[in-house]
Design brief:
By secondary structure, this protein is an alpha/beta fold. The protein has one domain (7-136): 3-Layer(aba) Sandwich (Rossmann fold). Helices cover 40% and strands 16% of the residues. It has helices at 18-29, 50-58, 72-77, 94-98, 116-140, and strands at 7-12, 36-41, 80-84, 102-106. It has a 4-stranded parallel β-sheet with strand order 2-1-3-4. Helix 1 (18-29) crosses helix 5 and helix 2 packs across helix 5 (116-140). The relative contact order is 0.24.
Length: 141
C-alpha cells in the first residue's frame, strides 16, 4: 500500500472525544506529509463537553465540527480505519479489509465527560499513539 496521501478515518462510539482528538492530533502532527484524517462515530453523540474541549485546548488541539456518524462517503474516502475505542466492534469494518484497506484497533477507554483528569490521561495516550502512527507512515512512504 502506498502511504503518500493516505486518508485515515478515526472511529469511536460517539465521535465526541476519542476519534475527534485523534483526528486533530493526526492532522497537526502529519501536516505537510500529504496525509489527511477525518473522524466519525458509529452512533451520533451529544455535543462535546466543555471539560473535554478545555483538555483538548491544553494539548493545543481543537475538535473539528460537531459529532458525526459513519456514512458511505467517509468509508469510500478512507484508506485506513483506526478504531480509537474499546467499545466499537472491529467486525464493522470487515468490508474495508476485503477491499484491501487497513484496519487498526487502539483499545482506548472512554471517560466521563466531566472527569478532567481522566480526559487528560486519555488525550496523552491518543497523542502518543498518533505520533507512532505518523512515524510509521513516514518510514513506509
Amino acid at each position: 500500500m502506498r502511504c503518500f496521501g493516505l486518508n485515515v478515518l478515526f472511529v469511536c462510539k460517539y465521535n465526541r472525544f476519542r476519534s475527534k482528538a485523534a483526528e486533530a492530533f493526526f492532522n497537526s502532527i502529519a501536516e505537510g506529509l500529504g496525509h489527511q484524517a477525518r473522524s466519525a462515530g458509529i452512533i451520533k453523540g451529544s455535543d462535546i463537553s466543555g471539560a473535554i474541549i478545555s483538555n483538548m485546548e491544553k494539548e493545543g488541539i481543537m475538535p473539528l465540527g460537531p459529532p458525526r456518524t459513519l456514512d458511505i462517503p467517509l468509508l469510500r474516502w478512507q484508506n485506513m480505519v483506526v478504531i480509537v475505542a474499546d467499545d466499537v466492534p472491529e467486525s464493522i469494518f470487515c468490508e474495508s479489509r476485503k477491499q484491501g484497506k487497513k484496519v487498526v484497533v487502539w483499545s482506548v477507554s472512554d471517560c466521563p465527560e466531566d472527569d478532567s483528569e481522566k480526559a487528560g490521561v486519555v488525550l496523552s495516550d491518543i497523542r502518543n499513539k498518533v505520533k507512532v502512527l505518523v512515524a510509521s507512515l513516514s518510514k513506509s512512504s
